[in-house]
Design a protein that fits this description.
25 strands; nine-stranded parallel beta sheet; mainly beta; disordered N terminus; 270 residues
Length: 270
C-alpha cells in the first residue's frame, strides 16, 4: 500500500499486476463472447445463389430450405453440440419443396438443436410444396419452431378428395409452434395434429384463406371439409393464441377446432 498526497492508503499496482489483470479481463470477455456466439447462430438460404461452395453462410447460402434444416439438426457438427438457437434466413424467392423438420434422431433421442426459426427476408419466401403436406414436423417436449413470413399459394397435383395441409405435427410432444406473419392460401387444413401434447400454438399477424375438399358420395353429395386445426381425441393443447389481426377466410366452409383439449382460454382477437 502507498499513501496519496492526502495521506489515504491506496493499493499499489505494479505494471506487472496491471498486465495480469488486463489479461484476465480479456480472457473473461473472450470466453463470454464465445459462449454467446455458440448459444445461437444463423444460416442462410437463397434459391438463386451459386451452388458451388454452398455451406449456409451469408456469402455461400444453401439453395434449398431443407439443406439448412438438415444442417441445423446435424448432431455431428461441433457448432450444434452446445444446443444453440438456430435461425434460418430465407431470401425472397420461390422454393419448390416440401419440408421435413424432425427434432428427434432415428433412435428417438433429442437432437442438440431444439429451437429453430425459418425467417423469410423482405416480403417473405414462397413455398411450393411437391406433396400434399407442405411441412411435416416431429418434436419433443423441448422443441420450438417459428415460421415467419412464409407464403404458400395452394398445393397442386393433389386429388380433390385429399386434404392439402400446411403443417402436419406427427409427434407425441411439441413445446411451441409460432406461425408469424405468414400468408397461407389454398389449403383445406392449416394444422393437422393427429396425436400430440403441445404447450403453445400461436397464429400471429397471419392471413389464412382456407379451401375445402368436396367429399361427394351417396350419403353426402356435397359435403365440405376444411379445418383451421384438426386433431384427434387424445390431442392436448395448453394454449392457442390467434392474435394481432390474424385474418381467417373459410371461403364459405366451416372452420373447426376439432376434438382437442385446450386448458387455457382461446385468445383470439382476429
Amino acid at each position: 500500500m502507498v499513501k496519496n498526497k492526502k495521506g489515504y492508503l491506496l493499493p499499489f499496482l505494479s505494471l506487472r499486476n496491471f498486465s495480469n489483470m488486463s489479461q484476465r479481463l480479456l480472457f473473461f470477455f473472450a470466453v463470454f463472447f464465445s459462449v454467446s456466439i455458440l448459444s445461437a447462430y444463423n444460416l442462410y438460404v437463397d434459391a438463386s445463389a451459386n451452388p458451388q461452395g454452398a455451406d449456409g453462410s451469408v456469402t455461400h447460402p444453401y439453395l434449398s430450405i431443407q439443406e439448412a434444416i438438415d444442417h441445423a439438426l446435424d448432431d455431428s457438427l461441433p457448432i450444434n453440440t452446445t444446443s444453440p438457437e438456430v435461425k434460418i434466413f430465407i431470401s425472397n424467392n420461390v422454393y419448390t419443396e416440401s419440408l421435413n423438420i424432425n427434432f428427434e434422431d432415428s433412435n428417438h433421442e433429442n437432437h442438440f438443436v431444439q429451437d429453430l426459426s425459418l425467417v423469410g427476408q423482405g416480403d417473405g419466401f414462397e413455398l411450393v410444396p411437391n406433396s400434399s403436406t407442405a411441412i411435416k414436423l416431429n418434436g419433443t417436449t423441448e422443441s420450438k419452431l417459428k415460421l415467419q413470413k412464409t407464403i404458400i399459394n395452394g398445393i397442386s397435383g393433389v386429388p380433390e378428395r385429399l386434404h392439402r395441409t400446411f403443417l402436419y405435427i406427427g409427434s407425441e410432444n411439441m413445446q411451441t409452434v409460432d406461425i408469424h406473419e405468414c400468408v397461407i392460401n389454398g389449403v383445406s387444413t392449416v394444422i393437422n395434429i393427429p396425436s400430440s401434447n403441445m404447450d403453445h400454438l400461436i397464429l400471429n399477424s397471419c392471413e389464412i384463406n382456407i379451401d375445402a375438399i368436396i367429399l361427394a358420395d351417396e350419403v353426402a353429395p356435397a359435403y365440405c371439409e376444411s379445418y383451421l386445426i384438426y386433431s384427434e381425441i387424445d390431442t392436448f393443447i395448453s394454449d392457442v393464441s390467434i392474435i394481432n389481426n390474424t385474418i381467417i377466410d373459410t371461403r364459405t366452409c366451416i372452420i373447426a377446432i376439432l376434438q382437442c383439449t385446450i386448458t387455457a382460454s382461446l385468445n383470439a382477437n382476429a
